[in-house]
Design brief:
With about 350 residues, the protein is α/β, with parallel strands linked by helices. The protein has a domain at about 115-335: TIM Barrel, CATH 3.20.20. It has helices at about 1-10, 20-40, 95-100, 130-135, 155-165, 195-205, 225-240, 255-260, 275-295, 305-320, 330-335; strands spanning about 115-125, 145, 165-175, 210-215, 240-245, 265, 270, 295-300, 325. Helix 7 (about 225-240) packs across helix 8 and helix 9 (about 275-295) runs parallel beside helix 10.
Length: about 350
């Protein structure tokens, strides 16, 4: 009775027709395959090993061929090959090129013939007043420029004068009469001889390229033969001449130099004891008169406005007067030749 009720209450399962069974199985198989494929696609894979980039091999230079065997000399000699051209240096920048000064030209020394009236114009005290010293350097030459050794950048200033064709001297400070100050490192009679020689070397080593020395002040010092002797000997050892500025009528510089075989000359005219244009012009007239009387003359002036202007005019007039401008060394040479 109970078995009959369960069978009656239970739902009846539908029956699958036998003809559809293969298709159902095929669909189930396709679903399984798709599930497996999706799982494999999502499964994490190990990272690939990074390989270095491929670099093309650089071409290698073939080895140099072995040197050819030395050939015996031919019967007829062949001319030697010209030497290879020197390698070109890299172009220098304008700044560096401008920083390297060109070699200074030689002093323009005119040829001197018999009967010429020779005039040397010396500018003392050069270098301290740099503005007016530059104006003197700009004048036509050859002038003779004597630089104070304690002037600022004295070597550069002297080189500028030499580049303009002027002759360069050193203006050696010495003790004057009275209380005037000749400047630092001046030679004085109160110094021991060793101290004087040290100061002399300091002055003479301040710059190079000078051909002679003349005294700055020195009216007291140049009158003392015992003090002047070692100074002139030192100039002789350095191969330079001495120009006696003759700041004192009692100077023994010129006579001692001539006695000891040191080339030397003396000044004839001072241009600017009076700082007036008319006075300087008169002194230039005296210079011309001395040159006509003895055939040559040496004038000393200073870098003052009136002197520079008067000398500029005189230089322009010299050819018409029959005067020849020469550096002091020309007159030193003539004096040494007798």
């Amino acid at each position: 009775m109970a078995t009959r009720k369960r069978a009656k209450g239970a739902a009846k399962r539908p029956k699958i027709p036998p003809a559809r069974m293969p298709w159902i199985l095929l669909g189930a198989l396709i679903g399984i395959l798709m599930t497996v494929g999706a799982g494999l696609a999502l499964w994490p894979r190990p990272a690939k090993e990074l390989r270095p980039p491929v670099v093309a091999a650089l071409p290698t230079r073939p080895p140099a061929p072995p040197p050819a065997a030395t050939q015996p000399p031919a019967a007829v000699a062949t001319p030697p090959e010209p030497p290879p051209a020197p390698a070109q240096l890299p172009a220098q920048s304008p700044t560096l090129a401008a920083a390297v000064p060109p070699p200074p030209p030689a002093v323009r020394k005119p040829a001197v013939s018999k009967g010429q009236l020779l005039v040397a114009l010396v500018f003392d005290d050069m270098g301290v007043d740099r503005k007016r010293s530059a104006e003197v350097i700009a004048l036509n030459g050859p002038l003779t420029l004597s630089f104070l050794p304690y002037a600022e950048k004295v070597g550069d200033q002297a080189a500028s004068g030499r580049a303009r064709g002027h002759e360069i001297m050193l203006h050696l400070p010495m003790q004057p009469e009275g209380n005037a100050d000749p400047g630092p490192h001046a030679l004085t009679l109160a110094q021991p001889p060793d101290e004087r020689l040290k100061r002399l070397d300091w002055n003479l080593d301040r710059f190079s390229g000078y051909v002679g020395v003349n005294n700055h002040m020195g009216s007291r010092f140049t009158a003392d033969a015992q003090a002047m002797g070692p100074v002139l000997q030192a100039l002789k050892a350095r191969g330079v001449f001495f120009l006696d500025s003759r700041t004192s009528p009692h100077s023994v510089g010129l006579s001692l130099a001539q006695r000891d075989g040191l080339p030397a000359v003396g000044r004839d005219v001072f241009l600017d004891h009076e700082m007036a244009a008319a006075a300087v012009d008169r002194r230039l007239g005296d210079l011309e008169a001395v040159a006509r009387r003895q055939g040559h003359a040496i004038a000393i002036g200073h870098p003052h406005d009136v002197t520079i202007a008067a000398v500029r005019r005189f230089l322009a007039e010299m050819p018409g007067k029959g005067l020849t401008l020469v550096p002091v060394s020309t007159l030193v040479r003539l004096a040494s030749d007798g």
